[in-house]
Amino acid sequence: MALMSTDTARRAATFKREDSPATWDHALARLPYAHALQSWAWGQFKARWGWRALPLSLSVAGNGWEAVAAAHVLRRDLPRTPWCVLYVPKGPALDYADTDLRRHVLAQLEALARRERAIFIKIDPEVVRSWGLEHERASPLGAAVMRDLSARGWQPSAEQIQFRNTVELPLESSDEQLLAAMKPKTRYNIRLAERKGVVVRPGTAADLPTIAAMYQETGARDGFTVRPTPYYLDGWTALIDAGMAQPLVAEVEGRPVAAVILVRFADRVIYMYGASRDEARERMPNHLLQWEAIRWTRAQGARVYDFWGAPDVFDETDRLWGVWRFKAGFNGEVVRFIGAWDYTPRPLLYRLYTQAIPRYLNILRARRRAGPQPTESP
Asked: What is the mean pLDDT of residues 289-300?
């Protein structure tokens, strides 16, 4: 009996559920466009906070049964309905330059959305749309992927859960070269922090409650939404236990004043969480903390330091403008991704979920704010 060709085998291949953490992470690590948010540890963490994790891999005989694609799908059921939403954070992982493979994977995800009775499925792989800021360079692959998505009925999502853009710092250079390439003010602030007695040390799991408290303080000061502390403690602990995360803590006279949680996956390290106190800000602890994070990343043998987030629009109206000005001082490169895309097999329910219900909830919130306020708690 003749064996099927690789192309025929691919067309016949379907996603299968993976139940082994070791097998999953081994397969994911071998795939292009893999990400920490597709890892087993992250999926299990999210499963403890309202989602159901569906780690799905695609293998073909012509590839020695090695996975050629992976999608760690998160499912959230909508209360009192038969419907759900599906999300593939920073995925799926596959060789997007392989046109036939990416179209087959998209078809499999579309079939999954229909089978799971999903209102929509959302993906947001780190496929680059363009690089640079002043002299932006478009990515032909990003353009081709977006054309495929549009042709298949996917649409750019109004709900961009992860950052659409980021800043990446390649680490092929020496410490001296990296410092020399920074903006003079950033380099000065790093040296100032050292002179003013800021000390950066590796953190441990014992530091996580202190970091979480600083993170709550940071959110209140900078005006971004912060989840309950147990959520962060659970997620950070899961990543540390999986060998994927490292806290760094900046101290002044033995007191923590700033911290970062670094997440390592494949050839990059992500500055995924940062927190600081108002105390000792004049000593510039965050500048030294970032520099030590970059140095730690190089020591791990990683190729890229990912600053994790940049403005959607690079002007002062964007909520991330202040954060961007800080990150820009380290001389990283702006990277724009194709962003989140949704596929819906149920367009009417999708419009209800993404447009009508949010507008209705906003009206209710406005009415509550405008109404009479109680003089004491009930």
From this structure: 97
pLDDT band per the 50, 70, 90 thresholds, residue 374: very low
CATH domain 167-337 topology: Aminopeptidase (3.40.630)
Residue 115: CB atoms within 10 A of its CB come to 9
State pLDDT tens for residues 267-281.
999 999 999 999 999
Distance CA 103, CA 109 (A): 10
Q: Which residues contact 37 (CB under 8 A, 6 or more apart)?
A: 72, 89, 90, 91, 162
CATH 3.40.630.30 occupies which residues in the chain? 6-126+340-358, 167-337
Cα torsion at 86, 88, 89, 91 (round to 10°)? -170
Looking at residue 24, its amino acid is: W
Strand duo 93-94 + 67-77: pairing: antiparallel
Mean pLDDT of 289-316: 95
